[in-house]
Design brief:
Blueprint lengths: L1 E5 L8 E5 L9 E10 L2 H8 L3 H4 L5 E2 L3 E9 L11 E4 L12 E5 L3 E3 L6 H5 L2 H14 L7 E5 L4 H12 L3 E6 L4 H6 L5 E3 L3 H6 L3 E6 L6 H6 L1 E9 L4 H9 L3 E3 L9 H9 L7 E6 L3 H9 L7 E5 L1
The chain binds NADP nicotinamide-adenine-dinucleotide phosphate (NAP).
Length: about 300
């Protein structure tokens, strides 16, 4: 079996496509033959060692979180997943390894793949939509009266947040790069601003929630855009921002893990056509190293990138 792995933290040059074997399956895990795996920025952040306080210093480590595939084996304590099921899901930060022919995952982090979705589409759902769920449904408590501003509304998390907020009936405006303006307007972001247009998007407030998907909006400026009782939501932690999250009721740091229990609900919304993913590239697994490196360097098409096993 082959997987993308690395033997020390570092840049793209540390990745290799290598033979590996998995240990005996633990009781609460499932073994999945991967059909598609979606690339997220988290993948190279982990490889660079940004989360080494969680991922530790045992190597080699696999890469990749989000996958869809067919269940090959189930642990003895798993009751709701069967061999042969088509599933999609993710893995814990300290047990990466979805860029592989076979991956082991906690059974609670997989859900049935809806027949209406391709393996590639399903693989694109977990991290972006779980993060957006934690932000929009959880922290922002979006509803039909809500006005939500999404800073970075064109990326994987941003576009997921736009759709979830719309599905909640909220009015969504946002900011993105110049090149993304037309596509976010088409997605119903009204109005859509560019990042330098701060005065205009601040004046369009106040908002019930400001969701900064990129960690580039000044927090004080974001807080000033809120209605009384509104929330600034962040997903890019730094030590200072984490601390702020503990002491401020108006500022929330959220994580994908906060939305993972909603994978079935996310799949249902996708089946109902209320949310969708835009795939820019489906690449063969044999090209994984080049494709990941290019994505990391920003050389990529619009839309998600998926590896096909
Ligand atoms: N806390 C958590 O659990 C959590 C979970 C998920 C992600 N994150 C973090 O949140 C951040 C955003 O994640 P993401 O998955 O949304 O990232 P992403 O899809 O890479 O989007 C980020 C930005 O990249 C630009 N972009 C999108 N497609 C592009 C393309 N084809 N070419 C060039 N630029 C493109 C867009 O900028 P423009 O606005 O210029 O169009 C977009 O706003 C990352 O730092 C990630 O690590 C945190």
């Amino acid at each position: 079996m082959k997987r993308v792995q690395f033997s020390r933290y570092g840049g793209p040059e540390e990745m290799s496509l290598a033979e590996y074997s998995l240990p005996a399956l633990e009781p609460r895990r499932v073994r999945v033959r991967v059909k598609a795996a979606a690339i997220n920025p988290l993948d190279w952040k982990i490889r660079r060692g940004v989360m080494k306080f969680v991922t530790g210093n045992r190597f080699p480590q696999g890469m990749g979180s989000d996958f869809a595939g067919i269940v090959d084996e189930v642990g003895t304590a798993v009751t709701d997943v069967r061999v042969g099921d088509e599933v999609f899901g993710t893995v814990e930060i300290k047990r990466q390894g979805a860029f592989a022919e076979v991956v082991d995952a906690d059974a609670r982090l997989v859900a049935p793949k809806p027949a209406a979705l391709s393996f590639s589409e399903a693989a694109c759902l977990p991290i972006p939509f779980a993060t957006a769920w934690a932000a929009i449904v959880g922290a922002a408590r979006a509803g039909s009266e809500s006005r939500i501003f999404i800073h970075g509304c064109s990326g994987a998390v941003g576009s997921s947040a736009v759709q979830l907020a719309q599905a909640c009936g909220a009015q969504v405006s946002g900011a993105c790069g110049e090149a993304s303006l037309a596509s976010v307007e088409l997605a119903g972001v009204r109005p859509a601003f560019t990042y330098p247009d701060k005065t205009s998007f601040a004046a369009y407030g106040p908002y019930d929630a400001v969701f900064d998907t990129l960690g580039t909006l000044d927090v004080a400026e974001g807080l000033a855009m809120l209605k009384s009782g509104g929330r600034f939501i962040d997903i890019n932690p730094t030590p200072g921002r984490m601390l702020r999250g503990f002491i401020s009721g108006r500022y929330r740091m959220v994580f994908a893990t906060g939305g993972f229990r909603n994978l079935r609900e996310i799949a249902r919304l996708a089946c109902e056509g209320k949310i969708h993913v835009s795939i820019g590239l489906e690449a063969p697994f044999t090209d994984a190293l080049t494709v990941i490196r290019n994505a990391e360097l920003g050389r990529r098409p619009a839309g998600r990138i998926v590896l096909i096993m």
